[in-house]
Amino acid sequence: MAAITAVSDLKPFKSMWKIQVKIIRLWKQYSAAGGLTIEMVLIDSNGVKINASVKKDLVNQFDSFLSQGSSKIIINFSLNPSCGSYRTTIHPYRIGFLSTTRVRNCDDLPDALTGFEPVNYRDIIDGTLNTDYLVDVIGQIVEVTPIEVVSANGKETHKLTVELRNEKDERLPMVLWGNFATDVSDAIQGRGENTIICVLRFGKIKVWKDERSVSNAYNVSDVELNPFTPEVEAFAALLPKDKLALAIVEPKPLALTAGAGDKNDFLVEQCIVMCTIAAIESDMGWYYLSCKVCSKKVLNVPNENADGLDDEDEMGFHYYCVKCKVKNPKLMPRYKLHLVVVDNTGNSKFLLFDAIAMQILNRPCNELTGNSFEE
Q: N or C: which terminus of the chain has fewer CB atoms within 10 Å of its end residue's CB?
């Protein structure tokens, strides 16, 4: 069987990867465009994290095999660039499950492998951190406002503002919304005068009039109070020994903006660009394998004997054409060029498929790959 690949070594030029990971965060997410999906944050034994997603059409296929805290071997999946303003990891790519992805049980990775990496308050406050990435935060709750009901994105929701402090007595505002607000408010009231340590996983850095705070990011985030973890014990031991009491304060007025961008942000138009091809992204691969009959991309399907953990042979798989319903069809390589282009205003990335790429290269793809090609 092919060796386990480190998450840091994953590249999009093929799908037949095999990884051993722990699911440290799992949630279901609904959007008008993508429907109901399963989202996860995975971590390998080296502590490297990557986001993974199961699209709506495959949720029923994989739902029962995936649970937060479990360790899995995952075989055969796509890799796409990680982008957007709610990125859970710094990995440049994210995993996409395929209908031919295989999920297998394995020995549990260590309990201590949580991926918890609390950031410095100062890096949030002074703008050092990129707000596109979600962050972990730990702090003692020293101030809390009464829970409010406010209007956000046209709907009424609960809002709770607390102030955290770290071991250096630096302060950081945290705003919680929805069920996070009510759950934390109820928990605080039940703990009386005791010191309350809050752990926020995958929180969003918010900026309003040059003031920065952290907030829960929809269902992505997780909030715990006084969890029994080594990190919390170590943090509590470093806090100032001033027995600071929890203060109840009046909420500050907050201007709310709609979460969606202006519709003009999504206009698509035809245009002509005069530019220079600076590079081809090799990580993305430069061709794909298609069925020679129908021209559709073929799928890689792991062979059943590829799951044996003691087999030292290379992982076996076969090709399958979904349209023709044929196993191991005749293959034809076709161009898929990921170009980095530049002009005097900046740079961008273009994707060229077979017909357009051939106009530039003046040679068919199979002349460059030869008869012996791999994914």
A: C
